[in-house]
Amino acid sequence: MEKIIFAGLEINKVSIKALFFNKTIIFGYILLALAVFGIYEVFLERYFSVAATAHASGLNPLAPGLKEAMKLAVFGDVGEVNRHIPWTLFIVNYMYMIYTGSGIIFLVALAELMNFNLVARAAAGFMVAGISMVFAGLFTIATDLNMLNMLWMLITPNMNAGMWLMLPLYCIYIPFVLFEIYLILTNKREWAKRLALPILVLSLGVDLVEYYIQAKLFSMNTARHLWTEFPALMFYFIISAFVSSLGVMGINSFLVHRNKPEYDALMDLIRRAMLFFVSVLGLYEIFGYMAVDKDWAFLILFGPFRYIYFAGYIFLTLALPFLLIVKQGNSILTVFASVCVVIGGFVGRYLFVYGGNANPMSNRFGVGYEKYDFYALSQSFNYVAPHLGEILIVVGSVGVCIVVYKLFDGLFSIGELRDHH
Fold it and tell me: What are phi and psi of 12, to 5 degrees?
């Protein structure tokens, strides 16, 4: 393919139609269209919900929407968020995308420092996959904040708010990663290797700051005491993110390299790394449930979440992948394991966030933990299913990953191995 050289970077001379309207990217557009409809649904839910008026009361005084509006008018919101307004699935997807994306970038930078030549040669594609997931996570949280809230945050900045805590980090982290991709694409191996260490530190910084932000958000309502009591919770996020990251890398390798000579060796590296982190995560789960808050543990292990926990998380993330990759064999088994851990990793995030919400308690001074419910008698299990708008936006965030990755690939052929010199 004819190339254009700019700042040492070889850019494919490709038509607008081939770049923006190929089959893969059109599929990404379809997913983004679903997200746009989801944003519309969420906008209606937040700003045009039913109001308790005399006219509405006279027309249908027993309408469920009117009753809910009156409850809101009298009692206000519960905690830091009204759970009848879409919120929680956004946090699940945001955490999953950010941690998994930064995990991919961390693992690739680590492989660069440890002289894993094969991974270093394929680093461009992996790095772009990682940064595309970071963008997808930011897209999710931006739709959660919505433009009106973001405008208000800019006009009246609160430096202790989550947005102002993560904004400086991403303003540094994303340019660093993009510059690392530039160095890889221009075959500057020594400079790429030098930048790998700051990338490692920044990737850990993303995890640490994100953990702090999420803990801060959750601690605004002391019902989420799990964030401060779960043993070594930070390590759970990192280890589980590495498992999901390796799953994404396995799927990427299958889609990009399966017909190339390096495929089997690359998949075997991913298999061995996945086996290690799946084993570590399994040990962590055993340790965690022995020490975590017993009410939360019983809710997950024996309560309404038990089926999705054992079938959707333990089986998909730990048991089945371990059986598929414990012995070296056909690379297709690693691909199946990769799909399992990608799905199971998301289920794990879902369980953690929703499980933390479903067992609400308030830790009042002199009283201790108290169960509460919305405007009703207290009960031990509270759960509101995700709103359709939330689900569509989460699906649409996958479209962000696809579009970003394919644009990079169309311009720079990031799927090619590069022999650095």
Answer: -65, 130
Alpha carbon separation from 343 to 27, 164, 243, 271 (Å, rounded): 20, 31, 11, 17
| Cβ proximity of 53 and 70 under 8 Å | no
Question: Residue 82: its pLDDT value, please?
Answer: 46
Identity of the residue numbered 2:
E
Q: Which of 278, 257, 277 is nearest to 267 (CA)?
A: 257
**Confidence category of residue 392, pLDDT binned at 50, 70, 90:** very high
Which of 377 and 397 is assigned the larger pLDDT? 397
What percentage of the chain has pLDDT greater than the value 70? 71
Domains in the chain (CATH in brackets) are 14-39+86-412 (1.20.1630.10)
Amino acid at 344: G
Confidence of residue 210 (pLDDT cuts 50, 70, 90): confident
Q: Across all residues in the chain, what is the average pLDDT?
A: 78
* Residue 195, φ and ψ in degrees, nearest 5: -75, -15
CA dist., res. 54 & res. 51, Å (int): 10
Helix 23-47 vs helix 388-412: crossing angle, to nearest 10? 150
Task: Report residue 9: phi and psi, to 5°.
Answer: -100, 130
Say how far apart CA 23 and CA 258 lie, in whole Å: 20
Torsion, CA 144, CA 150, CA 151, CA 155, rounded to 10: 150
